[in-house]
């Protein structure tokens, strides 16, 4: 197995070493065989060679069996348009034909105090969001700026994007949604805006057709704005949520916040060739970068997901997750989740604590 690690920008450079520390322990102790390659993406190669997604990284990504991605993005460089550092994310997703992002959100009892929700609402929260990430308004053409010919202010410059999905794109992500729900508690909510959007009406029809192949999964259609509200008022009612790219982007960040921090949530992203990609739910967080303050848990959870999905080692994945749970239960907290009565630790100290716990949990050589 060839694993490509792309730390990228901002806190990506601080959390990736913590994730690789965990991977090194598992490799050394458990016979997990992998060749690890590190590559450049984002602001670094943009400054060095004028390209946030250089050809060498493209080649490494093509050749990798699994990709661990940190973060990319620097809002002060957004004016660079197609060369902005976070454009590398879309380019990488496109290159690898990634289409389905799955993120699981669980509020363990030891985490209840971290959630912004009262315990009575947060308790028993355990759901997944399956988000389509290759299409929608993100990718579809035409998009751009032009002079408005009609509307309330003709003659002004207007920005426009195209929302678009084909039946096959919806069918492909719907299958991932149903498979995910089947492996969990068998309840799938498909969130769309079929009350206003033609794209969503197609989405709803195709999802309903695919449902016939999964009689054991209970499907409900829900309007995405209602889903946003109910995620906050009653998150424990959800098992699996299936949604499109833009709605999924927003619903995922709402869901992350419920767990206490976006720094706790990891994603696995699938294409159709078996090559798998892992990334935390958050971005480069430049406001805290370079201060050893970031929460490395989302990135470390990516290693657990990689052990489960790319190395077929669910036992090791669960042990890494157990080490994280035990360190949180012992009261260690990075700055963004620290409250009175818990122990404030740095990014590297959190990583080290999880690594020590993991060493203790793993069977002797
Ligand atoms: N997959 C990715 O690489 C990805 C995802 C989202 C945003 N971005 C990019 O990152 C840049 C910054 O975006 P943003 O500020 O909207 O989102 P962000 O996720 O980087 O940060 C949002 C907030 O969450 C906090 N935060 C994020 N991760 C954290 C962690 N691990 N520990 C503690 N606190 C954490 C940050 O300090 C910030 O206050 C933008 O350029 C954006 O395009 C990249
Ligand atoms: C940075 C951006 C392109 C990306 C997205 O919108 O998909 C990010 O917000 C995410 O959630 O991974
Ligand atoms: Mg996002």
From TrEMBL:
Domain Isopropylmalate dehydrogenase-like per the UniProt entry, residue ranges: 2-354
Catalyzed chemical reaction(s): (2R,3S)-3-isopropylmalate + NAD(+) = 4-methyl-2-oxopentanoate + CO2 + NADH
Names of required cofactors: Mn(2+); Mg(2+)
InterPro entries (alphabetical): IsoCit/isopropylmalate_DH_CS, IsoPropMal-DH-like_dom, Isopropylmalate_DH
The enzyme's E.C. designation: 1.1.1.85
A matching Pfam family: Iso_dh
Chain segments annotated as coiled-coil in the UniProt record: none
GO CC annotation terms, alphabetical: cytosol
This protein's record includes keyword Magnesium: yes
Family: Belongs to the isocitrate and isopropylmalate dehydrogenases family. LeuB type 1 subfamily.
Pathway annotation: Amino-acid biosynthesis; L-leucine biosynthesis; L-leucine from 3-methyl-2-oxobutanoate: step 3/4
GO molecular function, one term: magnesium ion binding
Domain of life: Bacteria
Listed SMART domains: Iso_dh
Keyword list, A-Z: Amino-acid biosynthesis, Branched-chain amino acid biosynthesis, Leucine biosynthesis, Magnesium, Manganese, Metal-binding, NAD, Oxidoreductase
Subunit comment: Homodimer.
Protein name: 3-isopropylmalate dehydrogenase
GO terms of biological process kind: L-leucine biosynthetic process
């Amino acid at each position: 197995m060839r694993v490509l690690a792309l730390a990228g920008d901002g806190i990506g450079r601080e959390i990736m070493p913590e994730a690789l520390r965990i991977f090194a322990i598992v490799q050394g102790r458990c016979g997990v065989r992998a060749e690890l390659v590190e590559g450049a993406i984002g602001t670094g190669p943009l400054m060095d060679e004028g390209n946030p997604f250089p050809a060498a990284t493209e080649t490494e990504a093509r050749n990798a069996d699994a990709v661990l991605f940190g973060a990319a993005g620097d809002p002060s460089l957004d004016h660079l348009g197609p060369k902005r550092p976070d454009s590398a994310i879309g380019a990488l997703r496109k290159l690898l034909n990634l289409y389905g992002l799955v993120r699981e959100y669980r509020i363990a009892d030891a985490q209840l105090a971290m959630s912004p929700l009262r315990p009575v609402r947060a308790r028993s929260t355990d759901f997944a969001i399956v988000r389509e990430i290759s299409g929608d308004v993100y990718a579809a053409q035409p998009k751009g700026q032009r002079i408005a010919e009609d509307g309330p202010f003709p003659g002004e410059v207007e920005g426009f994007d195209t929302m678009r999905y084909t039946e096959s794109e919806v069918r492909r992500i719907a299958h991932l949604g149903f498979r995910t729900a089947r492996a969990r508690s068998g309840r799938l909510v498909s969130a769309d805006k079929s009350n206003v959007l033609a794209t969503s009406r197609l989405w709803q029809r195709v999802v309903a057709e695919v449902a016939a192949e999964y009689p054991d999964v209970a499907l409900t259609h829900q309007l995405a704005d209602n889903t946003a509200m109910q995620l906050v008022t009653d998150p424990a009612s959800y098992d699996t949520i299936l949604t499109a790219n833009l709605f999924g982007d927003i619903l995922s960040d709402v869901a992350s916040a419920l767990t206490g921090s976006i720094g706790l949530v990891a994603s696995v992203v699938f294409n159709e060739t078996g090559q798998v990609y892992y990334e935390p739910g958050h971005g480069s967080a430049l406001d805290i970068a370079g201060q050893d303050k970031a929460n490395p848990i989302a990135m470390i959870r990516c290693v657990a997901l990689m052990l489960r999905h790319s190395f077929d080692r669910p036992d090791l994945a669960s042990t890494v997750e157990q080490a994280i749970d035990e360190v949180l239960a012992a009261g260690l907290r990075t700055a963004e989740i620290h409250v009175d009565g818990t122990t404030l630790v740095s990014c590297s100290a959190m990583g080290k604590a999880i690594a020590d716990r993991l060493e203790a949990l793993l069977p002797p050589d």
